């Protein structure tokens, strides 16, 4: 068994499990713990270090999440064959340390993850107060099963908010709440029908594609032009359902102009055609005038609108929703109310109170200002430091941009060179149905979870990494 | 527009919306509001009565849940064609009342709903305290997206609990948490494969059948004998996956004996065969010795165990889980971690604390005692009052029984006669794949949500209703 021995620092501002995970990570990076070696069992290591099993677990989970170790069912946790690009601090900190007396400091990784949001400004105390109100309310009432569509009062708030901020016209009866877009897409696909062909933006949101394909649905990739999905291409296919992200195309970031929206709605006028409009981060727009949602422009009840509180509120409470046009609402009511609501009724009630008391609007305003500043920092750092050697794509809204890098490196090289300087950037190829890795000289930069300083440092490091 | 006018009583112990719903219900039952009439819009009625829109909503939702009204999309709320059997209080309370000065008192309905649980003994204050701890913990950490399988510390607690109380042997790595059995069954069906034929108990749990069929999976109904699923019948089909409820067959209630369990495990030894063991209320057993779960008896990694906190803790927080054998776990890890966790991370953390601090065990013990008393009250009331004219089926465990009534009434008659005396009992035919309504002289009685007094009154009323 590998021996892991270190003295953890109680006064260190980092939690114990992070200190432990960092120590093990360092041992792996320095080669003192070898690939394919088995880590001690949680119980053994807990006894050995005098720590709780939970601390060990959390450390192991962290290592696993970062890809340093992987679990083999019923066998245990094993060190992965570490990508050597990850060994970023080898020179600095792999001196022969005595881990009993010295704690390893690791350079922070600047992570341009597009799924991260900033929770620094989240009004925790208000949320706690409202959570308690939900728990005290009519003791126990909210503990019994609720409406399969979700709580009426929350749906009323969502409906009012959608009208005011996104131009979506719907009654609360048309809204179905669910625990995330994947759950709701699964349901929606059953309501619309699995026998149809679903057209998807290419590149597009990979979770949608995989969810639909896993359900056994035929999908067809549709190319994009500068205005979004290519209608000429769409018309050539036998698809009668199309999934689009018009407010901020994922991942390319263009905003679909009104003319293209009207063309798409025109396409959908045919019998049995539907548009699924995913407005995953439409709250955040930095340039240009607001364009009404497809749902708001639709006169023929052809658009299903999808929204989420993950980007704009709290990712981990898992509250999303779909707005059904009347023909699909009828089908839902006839058959699908047998599917129980998937979101906790208590969270629904707390969110209702949060919106009802005006906190949601003021939080959104604060976040818009914050993200606008981060966005400006990012785009001006790119302009000043990387200049003509890169092209920024899709910068008018949302929490990420796409960067085309003109240095002849392919996607893999761009990512691994960045990692060698401690910067994590993300591939674009996974969003293509056919995974066009080599052709793409582009990567994805999310900025929601980084501070302005981190964004600055990140871009400076990328300049060096990519030799620009 | 219908005119609805009444004076609500602030000092009445019933909430306003209940008073309003009761009033409208009475007006419908007395025929003063006619079938197919449209109710006023929420806004209009709120203005008219000087109440909040929320109160009107809640009242309308209540009426809708009870089947008195139904919403037609974009048209409004309409009075349904009320079953005349429901007009239970017509004689007593349909005198020409002046609703402006008198509030209608309605007789309580005794509802033998099998989905109800008793939350009287739920330790609300502890749950509140732990919820606050989760919200304060490492500010914000729990607000970011967590592990797709669910929190490690909660999975550790579940794994320990399952071993101690249900004989399930698993590591936390094998557990996937999800927002309800329907979500998890959908995922499981993708992991196992939709190309297989799934055998289902007949009668059996209708939500499982519908979930699988909606996914496009071939299902085959398998008859039951007194020990549970009929293995001879199962062997004659081409099914290679079987879904069973061995701890307490739903709805018939038999506990599968060890010999049948071994036979079923033997059947599953063939390549690509799996057993899905749904232990939905296995915590509650009143007679006989505990029998280990199929998962615990399985030597060949052929059993997927399904569990839920809905029956034993709080229905509305939506926490269930599956335990995957290693071959399926591999498939899950290869492809399905792209599906995000559907349960709120905060609730997962609170539940972890609740179990970790021992509250779960003590709550379960209290609930076992409580349900045992209710169960005794029910079975002895049936024995004393209904005697030889009925047969009780499946009374050794769980929160419901099946009653066979020997008075030549069919299911519909049994239900409507009971309703005419203010007692709600439930059909068994919906649990048959082929809906054998007329042949069945049986109904379902759930007792979890009723007090002992209500159970007594309910059985007395059934004696009269069914002329026993």
Question: Any chance you could write out the topology, listing elements then pairs?
Answer:
The structure is a homodimer of 468-residue chains.
Chain A: H1 16-29, H2 42-49, H3 53-65, E1 69-72, E2 76-79, H4 90-93, E3 110-111, H5 124-136, H6 152-166, E4 175-178, H7 181-192, E5 197-201, H8 206-214, E6 218-222, E7 224-225, E8 228-229, H9 231-235, E9 241-244, H10 258-267, E10 274-278, H11 294-297, E11 303-308, E12 320-323, H12 326-335, H13 345-356, H14 359-386, E13 390-393, E14 400-405, H15 411-420, E15 423-424, E16 426-427, E17 442-446, H16 452-465
Helix pairs in contact in A: 1-3, 2-3, 5-13, 6-13, 7-8, 14-16
CATH domain topology of the largest domain in chain A: Aspartate Aminotransferase, domain 2
CATH class division of the largest domain in chain A: Alpha Beta
Helix content bin of chain A: 25-40%
- The coarse overall form of chain A would be globular
Tell me the number of helical segments of chain A per DSSP (H or I, 4 or more residues long): 16
Task: State the domain count of chain A.
Answer: 3
What's the number of extended β-strand segments of chain A? 17
Give a verbal description of the structure.
The structure is a homodimer of 468-residue chains. Chain A has 468 residues and is an alpha/beta fold. The first copy, chain A, has three domains: 3-105, Arc Repressor Mutant, subunit A; 139-357, Aspartate Aminotransferase, domain 2; 362-465, Aspartate Aminotransferase, domain 1, CATH 3.90.1150.10. Helix content of chain A is 39%, strand content 14%. Chain A contains 16 helices and 17 strands. In chain A, β10 (274-278), α11 and β11 (303-308) form a beta-alpha-beta unit. Residues 83-107 of chain A have low confidence and may be disordered. Chains A and B meet through α3, α5, α6, α7 and α8 of A and α3, α5, α6, α7 and α8 of B.
């Amino acid at each position: 068994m590998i021996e892991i021995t270190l003295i953890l620092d109680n006064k260190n501002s980092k939690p114990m499990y992070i200190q432990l995970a960092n120590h093990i990570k360092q041992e792996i990076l320095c080669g003192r713990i070898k690939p394919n070696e088995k880590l001690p069992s949680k119980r053994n290591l807990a006894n050995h270090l005098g720590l709780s099993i939970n601390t060990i677990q959390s450390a192991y989970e962290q290592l696993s999440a970062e890809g340093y170790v992987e679990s083999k069912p019923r066998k245990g946790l094993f060190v992965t064959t570490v990508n050597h690009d990850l060994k970023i601090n080898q020179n600095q900190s792999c001196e022969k340390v005595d881990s009993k007396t010295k704690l390893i400091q690791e350079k922070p990784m600047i992570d341009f993850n597009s799924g991260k949001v900033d929770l620094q400004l989240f009004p925790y105390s208000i949320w706690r107060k409202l959570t308690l109100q939900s728990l005290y309310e009519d003791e126990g009432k909210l503990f019994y099963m609720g409406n399969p569509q979700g709580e009426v009062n929350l749906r009323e708030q969502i409906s009012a908010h959608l009208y005011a901020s996104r131009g979506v016209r719907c009654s609360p009866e048309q809204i179905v709440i669910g625990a995330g877009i994947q759950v709701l897409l699964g349901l929606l696909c059953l309501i619309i029908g699995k026998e149809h062909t679903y057209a998807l933006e290419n590149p597009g949101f990979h979770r949608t594609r995989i969810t639909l394909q896993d359900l056994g649905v035929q999908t067809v990739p549709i190319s994009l032009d500068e205005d979004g999905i290519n209608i000429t291409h769409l018309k050539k296919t036998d698809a009668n359902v199309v999934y689009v992200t018009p407010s901020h195309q994922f991942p390319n970031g263009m905003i679909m102009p009104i003319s293209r929206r009207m063309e798409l709605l025109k396409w959908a006028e045919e019998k049995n055609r539907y548009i699924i409009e995913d407005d995953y981060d439409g709250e955040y727009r930095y340039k240009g005038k607001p364009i009404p949602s497809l749902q708001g422009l639709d006169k023929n009840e052809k658009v299903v609108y999808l929204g989420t509180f993950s980007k704009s509120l709290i990712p981990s409470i898992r509250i999303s929703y779909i707005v059904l046009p009347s023909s699909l609402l009828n089908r839902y009511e006839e058959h699908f109310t047998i599917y129980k609501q998937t979101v906790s009724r208590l969270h629904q009630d707390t969110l209702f109170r949060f919106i009802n008391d005006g906190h949601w609007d003021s939080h959104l305003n604060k976040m818009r200002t914050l993200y606008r500043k981060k966005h400006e920092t990012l785009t001006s750092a790119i302009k000043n430091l990387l200049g003509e050697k890169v092209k920024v794509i899709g910068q008018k809204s949302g929490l990420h941009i796409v960067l085309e890098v003109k240095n002849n490196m392919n996607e893999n090289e761009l990512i691994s060179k960045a990692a060698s300087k401690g910067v994590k950037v993300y591939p674009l190829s996974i969003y293509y149905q056919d995974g066009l890795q080599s052709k793409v000289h582009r990567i994805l930069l999310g900025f929601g979870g980084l501070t302005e300083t981190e964004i600055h440092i990140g871009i400076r490091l990328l300049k060096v990494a990519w030799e620009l």
